[in-house]
Amino acid sequence: MIPVLIVLNAGSSSLKFQVYDTPDSAEPRLVWKGLYEGLGGAAHFVVRHAGGADLDERLWTSGEEFGHEEALIHLISWLREHQEGRKLAAIGHRVVHGGQSFSGPVLVDDSVVQALEALVPLAPLHQPHNLEPIRIVRRRLPGMPQVACFDTAFHQTQSDIATLFALPREMRDRGVRRYGFHGLSYDYISSVLKDYGPRLAKGRVIVAHLGNGASLCALNNGASVATTMGFSALDGLPMGTRCGAVDAGVIFFMLREMRLSPEEAESVLYKKSGLLGVSGISNDMRVLRSKAATDVNARRAIDLFVYRITREIGSLVAALGGLDGLVFTAGIGENDAATRAEVIKGLGWAGLTLDEAANHNAGPRISLGSGPTAWVIPTNEELVIARQTRGVLGDMRSKLAS
Ligand code: AMP
């Protein structure tokens, strides 16, 4: 029997999963990946082979009450039907917030669940969805080892000063500090930098995770020293629908003058801002690129996105005391050559020179000359969760026996 583990990434109406073989000491090996969408309504299940070829698909009608619990039950039974010589040994979860106490992945037990529930106020729009499948598995498959892997943990190497807000001291004691997110993505990029050269692995590198969520992380010798996201996943760069950094005074204006409730203000900042809010068209970079030549608002949204990335890179270069490399990753970073070109052209002062042809072909190296180098490196957050889950549990075969 080959032990397998499932990696889960749960959202409000979606459940992404990947299934990994975890033989002995080798790197976890992806077997299948898939997604449930439209949970709570007309749900859709699709699963593909690791190489991308379609394997199976199913649709439910909206009257069937198909939510996260039903999706997990369906996934477990789908796995049993298809596993052939494999057996489920553990489940690894993406959990957005590990707070101050979790500086690495952790085996879930009663006290961990309690501690993670206490962090819901720090990430109210993400943490509850991440915790739901953990609770469902504890109920439905008691004894199944589960590991929580955190987006915040990678940033625990940052200095006290880098994580401090200039607020009264008692607020820090309440957990109001910069945490940083996208840590699973930065962990993956940090782990592969050695494949792109020792200067990157040992040097001062800025990673631009540019997807629907977007942030930058400054790495020194592979460890996080600063990042653009702070207390919540709202801070830093403009994103698909999130505002990025805004003056806190704007929020008082929304509450007092515009008379929005805290929930309405939160919804504006998380769901109606960023590329969507500025363009008034879409949060999807592909759509904005297709309209940018003719639509002034699409162009402004992209220009603001690029401007903020370039400015924040300047700030992180200062935090690092120089720059050896810049890495682009995630949906926009990996696929949108125009965004990469516009950012690099704004960084000539830092010694970066764009290699147009390489950028067009997505690199991996997209810079010329002997100065800092620029790269395109696809991220793999799920593999990090698989690695961390295996790392916490040790010998996966022994989990089959128990
Ligand atoms: P992610 O959250 O990492 O899946 O990234 C989603 C973002 O990547 C969306 O804004 C997409 O428009 C963008 N994206 C994906 N593929 C492309 C592409 N080929 N060109 C430009 N943007 C893309």
From TrEMBL:
**Family, per entry:** Belongs to the acetokinase family.
What gene does this protein come from? ackA
Q: Where is this site: Transition state stabilizer?
A: 182, 242
Q: Name one GO cellular component term.
A: cytosol
Name of the protein: Acetate kinase
GO biological process annotation, one example:
acetyl-CoA biosynthetic process
Describe, as the record does, how this protein assembles with itself and its partners.
Homodimer.
Q: Name the catalysed reactions.
A: acetate + ATP = acetyl phosphate + ADP
**UniProt pathway:** Metabolic intermediate biosynthesis; acetyl-CoA biosynthesis; acetyl-CoA from acetate: step 1/2
Where on this chain does substrate bind?
A: 94
Main EC class of this protein?
transferase
What SUPFAM superfamilies has UniProt attached to this entry? Answer: Actin-like ATPase domain (SSF53067)
What GO annotations for molecular function exist for this entry? acetate kinase activity; ATP binding; magnesium ion binding
Q: Where in the cell is it found?
A: Cytoplasm
